[in-house]
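Intended use. Records like the one below are meant for learning the mapping from a protein sequence to its folded structure. Do not use them to infer anything beyond what is encoded.
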Amino acid sequence: MKKIIFSLLVLLLASCANRVTPTGGEKDIEAPKLLATVPENKSIRFNSKEIHLHFNENITLNDLQGQFLVSPLMSKMPDVKANKRDIIITLPIDLAPNTTYTLSFGKSIVDVNEANPLDNFQYVFSAGDF
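Structure written out for the chain above:
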């Protein structure tokens, strides 16, 4: 009887220890999502020198030189840096009064793991009242 119980116990323990490589889950196919902006996107009476964009996952900037556009043109381009889940944009000059600015990122904002791009993201603000 002891031999049967011992044999069953050995078989039970041996079957519990199967080594399997983890699958890693499903492939990430979604682009990063914008969670918050400071100041708010499409602001009026804008007078900030910095813009913060916060995303739902770690991001990086890919081909910023070829993708990033500012309209109307500024004499000096804004400084754009990615830091984990944030993009920080530092504006280099005083803004023209009653002017609406558009910062177009094209496909330059991508997630770190799969490089899924956030297509045609724009941040728009106005130094005027509308």
